[in-house]
Amino acid sequence: MADEPAMVQFYLMGKPHRVPRGLTIQKAMEYAGFRLLRGCGCRGGFCGACGTVYRTPGDYRLKVGLACQTVVEDQMFLALIPFYPAVKSTYRVEDLPPTSDTLISLYPEILRCVGCNSCRKVCPQEIEVMRYIAAAQRGDIAKVANLSFDCLMCGLCASRCPAEIVQYNVAILARRLYACHVARPADHLAARVEEIERGACEADLDLMVAAGEAEWRRLYAAREIEPDE
Amino acid sequence: MRLGGGSVRIPYFPGCTLHSKARGFDASARAAAQALDIIMEELPEWTCCGATFSMSADSVMGLVAPTRILVSAKEAGKLLTLCSFCYNTLKRTNRVIATDAERRRKVLTFIEEDYQGTVQTVHLLELLRDEIGFDALAKRVTKPLQGLKVAPYYGCLLLRPAEELRFDDPERPTILENFLKSIGCEVVDFPHKTECCGSFVTVGSPETARECSSSILEAAVKQGAEMLVVSCPLCQYNLDRAQREAPAGQAHAPAVPVLYFSQLLAIALGCDEACLHLDGLSVDPRPRLSKWLGQKAEVTALA
Amino acid sequence: MILSRLNTENDVVAQINAISGVDVRACYQCGKCTAGCPLTSAMDLMPNQILRLLQLGEYEQALKSATIWQCASCLTCAGRCPKDVDPARVMDALRTILVRQGVAHVEISKIPADLLAEAPQQALIGGFRKFVGY
Questions:
Q1: Are B62 and C126 in contact (CB under 8 A)?
Q2: CA end-to-end distance (rounded Å), chain B
Q3: I want to staple B160 with a disulfide (CB 3.0 to 4.6 A). Which of A139, B30, B119, C75 is the partner?
Q4: What is the rounded CA–CA span in Å between residue B33 and residue B222?
Q5: DSSP letter, residue A179
Q6: Peptide bond into B161 cis (omega under 30)
Q7: Is B198 on the interface with A (CB under 8 A)?
Q8: Is residue B148 part of a domain?
Q9: Best residue of A138, A143, A144, A146 to probe chain B, by most B CBs closer than 10 Å
Q10: In whole angstroms, what is the distance from residue A118 CA to residue A123 CA?
Q11: Would an 8 Å CB–CB cutoff place B43 in contact with chain A?
Q12: Are B66 and B93 in contact, with CB atoms under 8 Å apart?
């Protein structure tokens, strides 16, 4: 009979709001009248700006998600954690050897890790944070880089760590060390860059610059779409 | 854990330090083990054990990491370590888990696994003594280190608390002496062989640790030692560092190489020298060991 | 100093007993712990003196001592104590009380760079656990 969508209730900073079912937390906050100035970024699950922690009734456990990706649950009680304080060391990655000494010298607190696993439990990307901190202590830079690949640097891990480690700063240092010193340079990338510098794309770029909106739309609609593998 | 043909297969926990600062300990032990048909299978995933065992009766957090490590060896029922710190922490943690029901319950809710304290932590020296036997070990030695005067330095963590670890007699141990004899060394007994090198106090008060280590070195050299063997990277670091520095107006501690017991074992078994990693010591041991080094290895081993 | 139950039975000593699992009153001051301790030259109060102070309710002196930060937990004292009083556990309890209050003996940011780079991880990990806490 009623063709309005079913409503759900969520609590933001302790105050209840009723919103249509099926909205993400970010959309729900906007529906409730908030204009998002902080803790909102790409809206695509990639930038890590909207890390959210919440609880639901009858369950003591903490739950996490990205506000732009997570759908509101009825009676969800949440808080956005847009930024948890973290100080990053300054360094020139070119000058640093890819070893545990580098990580320990810049972030000695990684040795305080107690192995509680709170970091992994709170990661909205389900990254094995404790595993990569263990790898960092052992000096396995490649493993840190690979395990932390999906990290958005949302900061939720740092907010929960009893040893006060800022895990994502350690991870990005490891990824930089890996890229700079460990990973094999991509030959095809170098070749392609050279091609571009020799003018392989100039003709296409000139075409785009000269064409107007109508032509762009036509080109876009007629573009060659890569088949799924 | 015997397989057919006399092999011993055992899960192995190296600990953080053996993968970075003490590579010689890890590599020489693996090579020696392989020569003795002991297969040390490193745990596929492991975290730091926390190094020190918290003696607080209400400590739960400190037990989480070592318990996790023990759980990963649950199936095998045994876990091998080399480093004294790891041995001490794992064994004492296991005892708490096995005997203190309330703390076990708390720890298990964190790691979300079931574990009743069934894993036995084993040190490589215990394995050599109990599974191989020092007499049998002596028969496998191809390069007995005859005439090499070695002082065994135990440090603290292998021996104490004795009622928990049951590694050896805490005041008059003999396991390292018997080990050294089996590889042909001349054993130098000395009064400070079970005394603390200063341990982690080196982080807060390096002078204190230097003093402890110096008296150990002096006592060993006074009895005629030309080398010390240890089972702990921190003992090795403290003893080695004490030789490099002396406070103003004080004499240097005597300079003598400090090696891991597995390095001498690997030499005696004729392992490939690449596994030894004898660089970086205050005193280069290679001149004294030249009689047994520099020859073609009979047994190829893991480097 | 007036000795009475008001000094000797107090919350802090009770806490030390609870954390260490030891009753400090069991110590009869034989001195074997001090005799065996390899680090006494760096200590201002001897291990048996620490125990005595706690028996008398003078925990503040014990907590302010340099002794508890020079103890390496080598357990020589514990192995020799004829009354199982385990001075090592008492030292650990004193440190635990302080680090839980946020008092750190080691300032991580001030550790010399060469020590951070050269010391084996277990030295730093053990040092942080005992001197900085968690």
A1: no
A2: 25
A3: C75
A4: 33
A5: I
A6: yes
A7: no
A8: yes
A9: A138
A10: 9
A11: no
A12: yes
Tokens matching residue C118: 């050269």
Assembly ipTM: 0.91
Q: Are B148 and B278 contained in the same domain?
A: yes
Mean pLDDT of A113-137: 91
Structure tokens at C35: 């005799």
- Return the beta strands (E) in A21-173 as ranges: 51-55, 63-66, 76-80
Pairing mode of beta strands B78-81, A15-20: unpaired
> Cα torsion at B29, B31, B36, B41 (round to 10°)?
70
Low-confidence ranges of chain C (pLDDT < 70): 1, 134
Q: Which CATH superfamily is domain C5-103 in?
A: Alpha-helical ferredoxin (1.10.1060.10)
B79 in any annotated domain: yes
Nearest to A138 among B19, B65, B110 (CB): B19
DSSP B292: T
Residues of A in contact with B280 (CB under 8 A): none
* C-alpha–C-alpha distance, residues B140 and B137, integer Å: 5
Instruction: Specify whether the CB–CB gap between A67 and A41 falls below 8 A.
Output: no
Q: Distances from the Cα of B143 to the Cαs of B28, B140, B245, B266, B271, in angstroms? A: 15, 9, 35, 10, 10
pLDDT digits (tens, 9 = 90+) for A187-202: 999 999 999 999 999 9
Q: How many domains does chain B have?
A: 2
C5 contact partners, CB below 8 Å, separation of at least 6: none
Class of the CATH domain delimited by A7-80: alpha beta
List the structure tokens of B37. Answer: 């048909």
pLDDT digit string (tens) for A32-89? 999 999 889 999 998 989 999 999 999 888 899 999 999 999 999 998 777 888 988 8
Same domain, B173 and B66: no
Tokens for B113, please give them: 């696994």
Say if residues A173 and A91 touch (Cβ distance below 8 Å): yes
Question: How close does chain A come to C116, measured CA to CA in Å?
Answer: 6
Which token pair is B260? 């891991």
Domain ranges in chain A are 7-80, 93-182, 187-217
Give chain A's contact residues with B (Cβ, < 8 Å). 99-101, 111, 113-117, 130-131, 133-134, 137-140, 162
Q: What is the CATH number of the domain that holds B259?
A: 3.40.50.11810
DSSP string, B14-32: --TGGGTTTHHHHHHHHHH
Cα distance between residue C62 and residue A173, in whole Å? 43
Q: What's the pTM?
A: 0.86
> What is the 3-state secondary structure of B167-231?
CCCCCCCCHHHHHHHHCCCEECCCCCCCCCCCCCHHHHCHHHHHHHHHHHHHHHHHCCCCEEEEC
**What pLDDT is stored for residue A5 in this prediction?**
61
